[in-house]
Amino acid sequence: MIGCEGAVYSVTxxxxxxxxxxxxxxxxxxxxxxxxxxxRTGADIGLKCGVCxxxxxxxxxxxxxxxxxxxxxxxxxxxxxxxxxAAGITEDRLPGDAC
Length: 99
Description:
The chain is of the alpha+beta class and 99 residues long. The protein has helices at residues 60-66, 81-86; strands at residues 22-25, 35-40, 44-49, 55-59, 67-71.
């Protein structure tokens, strides 16, 4: 997009993530896991490996290049399987569990 005086500005769509979201990255961690949990957001994104528990920090630009799928963490009132079905969750695990 071109601004006033010919300056070029890029319009960036940020990936919306929150603490507790489960993330699938494009390449596996050396332990073999593709699954990560968001532990920090901001200019840098903090991630925790779903298998070995290793924590890494990625700047937002690199995070957005590497991310494949974001599964939003759904807050449940009662935390029971019946509530999960009523909330439309079809996975075998409840939100808040490890990815």
